[in-house]
Amino acid sequence: MKYFLALISIILGAGAQYLLKVGMNSGIVYTNDIGNTIRKILTNPYIQCGAILYALSMFCWLYVLSVMELSKAYPMVSLGYVFTLFLGFSFLNESLSMSKIVGILLIIVGVFFINR
């Protein structure tokens, strides 16, 4: 259960990053009118949903921290890079190079060995 909730927390965090990116790409432009920029950010539905996912991720993560050793739990957070790269490649047309694939494999292998 603890590994499942850790994975859920990490996936929620990656989903939040994706939604924040989509929200910021939806026409929000930083201007000298900081109040207007903040209003646009706070009223953007993608950014709001991203914040909700982050909150859900945090509550799952708090449980994980209560039942796992920190030295095993925290390295699992690096799996968020794997999920985020997949989301960027799949839905945002971001590049996927051989070096990124090797990096992902190294992260996965590292997390595996730490949690053995």
From TrEMBL:
It is a multi-pass membrane protein. It is found in: Cell membrane. GO terms for cellular component: plasma membrane. Gene3D superfamilies: 1.10.3730.20. It comes from the Bacteria. Its main location: membrane. Residues 47-115 form the EamA domain. Keywords: Cell inner membrane, Cell membrane, Lipid A biosynthesis, Lipid biosynthesis, Lipid metabolism, Lipopolysaccharide biosynthesis, Membrane, Transmembrane, Transmembrane helix. The chain crosses the membrane at residues 45-66, 73-92, 98-115. SUPFAM superfamilies: Multidrug resistance efflux transporter EmrE. Pfam families: EamA. InterPro entries: EamA_dom (IPR000620), EmrE-like (IPR037185), Small_drug/metabolite_transptr (IPR000390). GO terms for molecular function: transmembrane transporter activity. The keyword DNA damage does not apply. The keyword Cell membrane applies. GO terms for biological process: lipid A biosynthetic process; lipopolysaccharide biosynthetic process. This is EamA domain-containing protein. It comes from Bacteroides fragilis.
